[in-house]
Here is the input.
Amino acid sequence: MTDPVDRCFAPAQLNGLTLRNRLIKAATFEGKTKGGVLSEELIRLHERMGEGGVGMTTLAYCAAEADGRINEDMIYMHEGVRAGLEALVARMHATGAKVSGQLGHCGNFSKNREFQGKRPLGPSRGINSLGLAYGLPFAGALSQTQIRERVAVMGRAAGFMKSVGFDAVEVHFGHGYGISQFISPRTNKRTDEYGGGLTNRMRFGLECLEAIRAEVGDDFPLLAKISMTDGVRGGTSVDDAVEIAAMLEAGGIDAIICSGGTSSMNPMLLFRGDSLAPGLIENEEKWILKIGMKLVGERMFREYPYEEAYFLDEARRIRERVQCGVCYIGGVCTTESIRTVMSEGFDFIQIGRGLIFDPDMPKRAQERADYRNGCDHCNRCATLIDTPDGISCVLRPDNFVSA
Ligand SMILES: Cc1cc2nc3c(=O)[nH]c(=O)nc-3n(C[C@H](O)[C@H](O)[C@H](O)COP(=O)(O)O)c2cc1C
Ligand code: SF4
Here is the structure.
């Protein structure tokens, strides 16, 4: 029988796209697009991942439109970023790796100082806790006309991404962002056909998927990153996620990435390991937010100790339910974990922190059965997103510096 690790390092297909192996760098927003402009440092980080051997990288947070950004230091899909994206794609391809872009919309959760609308819009009215100190304290509800406009915006953005050379698009269906605000009963209180039961709550996301597919065509790889559970009272459950996966498959998705949690309410569920709170408090410039975080810290940043392959039990249920591709994510830092995940029949593995710590992880894990990288899941990298230089591994700060 083939060793599952060999299967990982053999070429793999994703809707006609050949990846040299099944390891994909996860979307980890790097904070290296200050003012909405791609930096050389961002391109270098991804290029380094390509040199280290990943099959594909994922450029995080490609906002569908200007007001789809959480803050003004993110890129949005328009002609102004074409040259930068084309350069990133070309440099990645020169390493032999493919490039996916994570297409997202912040919906009702924004602290964008350049926000153009009156207020961020999601499924229902509410408080925009992230925007409290940025003059955006309230979130509004999208009208049905505005829903149709946003669906079209998502479709056009995906078409733009294909036109700059991305090999695949990963649509963000999870982590409390725009689409998942509709999916979660915790944030979707609508009484029209976009709210209520799961079929209705999935309607917006599936309409986005349909519009995206119409723009990119049938033979272009589309992935969806979902939250298998929001991990909050009144949110989605793993039972819901199994049905969500089936609906995505019926909607024509090529692969589902099985994550969990929400950035806004329960971020530690998706990260695991040390709390983000101390680092975020230390790096926060606004004193009011520092105090706020100290007050809500323990409730928001719940304790979830790190374990290798921590989403395996939930992700297995998705694997069992659908025939389309399924991508495992969450806590893969050793060759042994790669073996475990591959032997369970997953098609791809996304890796975040393991690659931030060691961009050469693919090559090393292929060579050594006892490979174990030294990321200690301190999560400090994730607290550096909003700092002037963006993320790096605090244990290996020179990882992405050009030779
Ligand atoms: C610095 C950092 C930034 C992240 N940014 C994003 C993001 O922009 N979009 C996203 O879906 N997940 C994001 N994540 C979550 C990762 O994609 C991934 O789900 C998580 O780190 C667990 O995988 P890992 O154990 O391999 O790190 C981020 C993680 C880190 C460490
Ligand atoms: S800063 Fe480094 S060691 Fe800490 S979680 Fe990030 S990659 Fe791992």
User: Anything to note?
Assistant: The CA atoms of residues 282 and 290 lie 8 Å apart. The pocket of flavin mononucleotide (ligand 1) is lined by residues 26-29, 60-61, 102, 172, 175, 225, 259, 270-271, 329-332, 351-354, 381-382, 391 (CB under 6 Å). The chain has a mean pLDDT of 94. The first strand starts at residue 12 and ends at 14.
